[in-house]
Design a protein that fits this description.
Helices cover 31% and strands 25% of the residues. With 182 residues, it is α+β, with helices and mostly antiparallel strands. It folds into two domains: 81 residues, 2-Layer Sandwich (Alpha-Beta Plaits); 80 residues, Reverse transcriptase/Diguanylate cyclase domain (Alpha-Beta Plaits, 2-Layer Sandwich), CATH 3.30.70. The strands form two sheets. A four-stranded antiparallel beta sheet has the order 2-3-1-4, with helices on both faces. The protein has a four-stranded antiparallel beta sheet with strand order 6-7-5-8. Helix 3 crosses helix 6. It starts with a strand and ends with a helix. The relative contact order is 0.19. It comes from Streptomyces durocortorensis. InterPro entries: DUF1697 (IPR012545). It holds the Pfam family DUF1697.
Protein backbone atom coordinates (compact mmCIF):
# COMPACT_ATOMS: atom_id res chain seq x y z
CA UNK A 1 0.00 0.00 0.00
CA UNK A 2 1.28 3.46 -0.81
CA UNK A 3 1.21 6.39 1.57
CA UNK A 4 1.32 10.14 1.01
CA UNK A 5 4.16 11.92 2.77
CA UNK A 6 5.54 15.41 3.11
CA UNK A 7 9.27 16.04 3.11
CA UNK A 8 10.28 19.07 5.16
CA UNK A 9 13.77 20.25 4.26
CA UNK A 10 15.57 22.45 6.75
CA UNK A 11 17.49 25.59 5.90
CA UNK A 12 17.50 25.55 2.10
CA UNK A 13 17.14 28.51 -0.27
CA UNK A 14 17.64 31.02 2.56
CA UNK A 15 19.87 33.98 1.82
CA UNK A 16 21.33 32.39 -1.29
CA UNK A 17 22.89 29.45 0.52
CA UNK A 18 22.08 25.77 0.13
CA UNK A 19 20.18 26.30 -3.11
CA UNK A 20 17.89 23.42 -3.97
CA UNK A 21 15.68 24.31 -6.92
CA UNK A 22 12.25 22.74 -6.59
CA UNK A 23 12.35 21.08 -10.04
CA UNK A 24 15.57 19.34 -8.99
CA UNK A 25 14.03 18.32 -5.66
CA UNK A 26 11.16 16.74 -7.58
CA UNK A 27 13.70 14.93 -9.79
CA UNK A 28 15.58 13.61 -6.75
CA UNK A 29 12.34 12.30 -5.25
CA UNK A 30 11.42 10.63 -8.54
CA UNK A 31 14.86 9.03 -8.77
CA UNK A 32 14.24 7.58 -5.30
CA UNK A 33 11.18 5.83 -6.74
CA UNK A 34 8.48 8.08 -5.32
CA UNK A 35 5.38 9.16 -7.26
CA UNK A 36 2.67 11.85 -7.13
CA UNK A 37 5.41 14.40 -6.39
CA UNK A 38 4.64 18.08 -5.90
CA UNK A 39 6.45 20.95 -4.20
CA UNK A 40 5.14 23.96 -2.33
CA UNK A 41 7.02 27.26 -2.23
CA UNK A 42 10.80 27.43 -2.56
CA UNK A 43 11.55 26.66 1.08
CA UNK A 44 11.76 22.90 0.98
CA UNK A 45 8.29 21.45 1.09
CA UNK A 46 7.50 18.44 -1.07
CA UNK A 47 4.79 15.81 -1.05
CA UNK A 48 5.07 12.38 -2.57
CA UNK A 49 3.64 8.89 -2.53
CA UNK A 50 5.78 5.92 -1.49
CA UNK A 51 5.49 2.19 -0.79
CA UNK A 52 8.06 2.55 2.01
CA UNK A 53 6.42 2.84 5.43
CA UNK A 54 9.39 4.11 7.43
CA UNK A 55 9.59 7.90 7.78
CA UNK A 56 13.14 7.83 9.14
CA UNK A 57 14.37 5.64 6.28
CA UNK A 58 12.68 7.92 3.75
CA UNK A 59 14.31 10.98 5.35
CA UNK A 60 17.75 9.34 5.44
CA UNK A 61 17.52 8.30 1.78
CA UNK A 62 16.47 11.81 0.77
CA UNK A 63 19.27 13.41 2.82
CA UNK A 64 21.81 11.10 1.16
CA UNK A 65 20.47 11.76 -2.34
CA UNK A 66 20.47 15.54 -1.78
CA UNK A 67 24.04 15.43 -0.49
CA UNK A 68 25.12 13.40 -3.53
CA UNK A 69 23.37 15.79 -5.92
CA UNK A 70 24.23 19.17 -4.37
CA UNK A 71 27.36 18.50 -2.32
CA UNK A 72 26.02 19.78 1.00
CA UNK A 73 24.04 18.31 3.87
CA UNK A 74 20.32 19.01 4.14
CA UNK A 75 18.40 17.88 7.21
CA UNK A 76 15.04 16.38 6.23
CA UNK A 77 11.99 15.29 8.13
CA UNK A 78 9.39 13.08 6.46
CA UNK A 79 5.89 12.84 7.89
CA UNK A 80 2.87 10.97 6.63
CA UNK A 81 -0.48 12.53 5.78
CA UNK A 82 -2.17 11.22 8.92
CA UNK A 83 0.44 12.77 11.18
CA UNK A 84 0.25 16.14 9.41
CA UNK A 85 -3.55 16.19 9.73
CA UNK A 86 -3.36 15.18 13.40
CA UNK A 87 -0.90 18.00 14.15
CA UNK A 88 -3.21 20.51 12.47
CA UNK A 89 -6.26 19.14 14.28
CA UNK A 90 -4.51 19.21 17.66
CA UNK A 91 -3.48 22.87 17.44
CA UNK A 92 -4.05 24.43 20.87
CA UNK A 93 -4.43 27.92 19.41
CA UNK A 94 -7.42 29.32 17.44
CA UNK A 95 -5.81 28.85 14.02
CA UNK A 96 -8.93 29.81 12.08
CA UNK A 97 -8.97 33.26 13.64
CA UNK A 98 -5.24 33.99 13.26
CA UNK A 99 -3.12 35.12 10.35
CA UNK A 100 -0.79 32.43 9.00
CA UNK A 101 2.29 34.43 10.04
CA UNK A 102 1.14 34.42 13.67
CA UNK A 103 1.10 30.67 14.16
CA UNK A 104 3.91 28.25 13.47
CA UNK A 105 4.63 24.58 13.94
CA UNK A 106 8.18 23.50 14.66
CA UNK A 107 8.53 19.86 13.68
CA UNK A 108 11.10 17.71 15.50
CA UNK A 109 12.72 14.45 14.47
CA UNK A 110 11.56 12.78 17.69
CA UNK A 111 9.39 13.40 20.76
CA UNK A 112 10.52 16.30 22.91
CA UNK A 113 10.12 16.31 26.66
CA UNK A 114 8.80 19.48 28.33
CA UNK A 115 11.84 19.48 30.63
CA UNK A 116 13.90 20.94 27.76
CA UNK A 117 11.98 24.19 28.18
CA UNK A 118 11.60 24.33 31.98
CA UNK A 119 14.04 27.25 32.28
CA UNK A 120 11.92 29.49 30.05
CA UNK A 121 9.80 31.96 31.98
CA UNK A 122 6.83 31.75 29.65
CA UNK A 123 5.06 34.69 31.27
CA UNK A 124 7.91 37.03 30.32
CA UNK A 125 7.19 36.39 26.62
CA UNK A 126 3.43 37.03 26.67
CA UNK A 127 1.45 37.49 24.52
CA UNK A 128 3.68 35.00 22.70
CA UNK A 129 3.09 31.40 23.75
CA UNK A 130 4.10 27.86 22.89
CA UNK A 131 2.72 24.39 23.49
CA UNK A 132 4.32 21.03 22.86
CA UNK A 133 2.61 18.49 20.65
CA UNK A 134 3.46 15.13 19.12
CA UNK A 135 7.02 15.60 17.83
CA UNK A 136 6.24 19.28 17.36
CA UNK A 137 5.90 22.61 19.06
CA UNK A 138 3.16 25.12 18.34
CA UNK A 139 4.29 28.74 18.52
CA UNK A 140 1.91 31.68 18.68
CA UNK A 141 3.80 34.83 17.74
CA UNK A 142 1.27 37.63 17.16
CA UNK A 143 3.85 39.95 15.55
CA UNK A 144 5.30 37.21 13.34
CA UNK A 145 8.32 34.97 13.62
CA UNK A 146 10.80 37.67 12.60
CA UNK A 147 9.93 39.77 15.66
CA UNK A 148 9.44 36.90 18.08
CA UNK A 149 11.60 36.95 21.21
CA UNK A 150 10.14 33.59 22.20
CA UNK A 151 11.24 32.02 18.91
CA UNK A 152 14.79 33.19 19.59
CA UNK A 153 14.69 31.73 23.10
CA UNK A 154 13.23 28.42 21.88
CA UNK A 155 16.00 28.14 19.30
CA UNK A 156 18.82 28.40 21.82
CA UNK A 157 21.14 25.37 21.82
CA UNK A 158 20.08 24.15 25.26
CA UNK A 159 16.53 23.74 23.95
CA UNK A 160 17.22 22.15 20.58
CA UNK A 161 20.62 20.50 21.00
CA UNK A 162 20.65 17.08 19.39
CA UNK A 163 17.35 17.62 17.59
CA UNK A 164 16.55 18.16 13.96
CA UNK A 165 13.90 20.85 13.84
CA UNK A 166 12.25 22.85 11.09
CA UNK A 167 9.47 25.44 11.32
CA UNK A 168 6.52 26.12 9.05
CA UNK A 169 3.95 28.89 9.31
CA UNK A 170 0.31 27.92 9.59
CA UNK A 171 -0.45 28.64 5.93
CA UNK A 172 2.19 26.08 4.95
CA UNK A 173 1.00 23.60 7.59
CA UNK A 174 -2.53 23.79 6.18
CA UNK A 175 -1.33 23.57 2.58
CA UNK A 176 0.74 20.44 3.29
CA UNK A 177 -2.27 18.80 4.94
CA UNK A 178 -4.32 19.62 1.84
CA UNK A 179 -1.64 18.39 -0.56
CA UNK A 180 -1.16 15.06 1.25
CA UNK A 181 -4.86 14.25 1.26
CA UNK A 182 -4.76 13.57 -2.48
Amino acid sequence: MTTMYAALLRGINVGGSKRVPMPELRTVLAELGHTAIATHLQSGNAVFRSDIDDEDALAAALEHALHQRFGFAVDCLVRDAGYLAAVADACPFPAASLEGKQLHVIYFDRPVDASRFEDLEAESFLPEEFRLGDRCLYLYAPDGLGRSKLAVALGRPRHVKGLTATARNWNTVAKLVEMTRG
